[in-house]
Amino acid sequence: MGTLMVKGKAIEIESDPYADLGLIESDNLGTPRVLSLLSSVLERSIQRNKNLPEGSKYKDVITIFHGSKPPAMSIRKYIERIFKYSKCSNSCFVVALIYIDRFLQVMDAYLTSLNVHRLLLTSVMVAAKFMDDQCYNNAYYAKVGGISTEEINRLEMKFLFCLDFRLHVTTEVFAKYCSKIEREADVDYQTDQHIQGHWP
Of 47, 65, 150, 195, which has the most beta carbons under 10 Å away? Predict the structure, then answer.
């Protein structure tokens, strides 16, 4: 049994996956596990999308989220940076993944190394504004993300209009995405065992 903080209210949770992902509010000041798993989910998605067949359903739709070249900072380091400086609740990162999926479905696009950083920054910022009682302003998030305030404002507007301002996430959808992220941990564990052999 644990407690998940949403909009300043404690919700009692019986499920261990929330605790396993680091979503349960505690005195633990370390990096929640959900961040490394989220980066794995995003990196694997980008890898899969690189291998899409030429005539696939999804096209590389160029949006304002695309950069001209991939940023030097890895997805994992970028997520950790956002976490460190935004001080948003850990659940915002799960909700950010839900928002990214919704955005990509509406745009009929896919995740690439050119758009993932801006989508991540924007989705976490929007999730923090919607879910948390206190959050930083756009100028602060722009500094954290290494872009201008004007750019983060444009990204946020495009993102919100594409989502039709539908930011509510049901507990069922949230739990489904937590399970999806948790399954990523199982894949990582199996891959490590395959590469490194079994530990004594």
Answer: 65
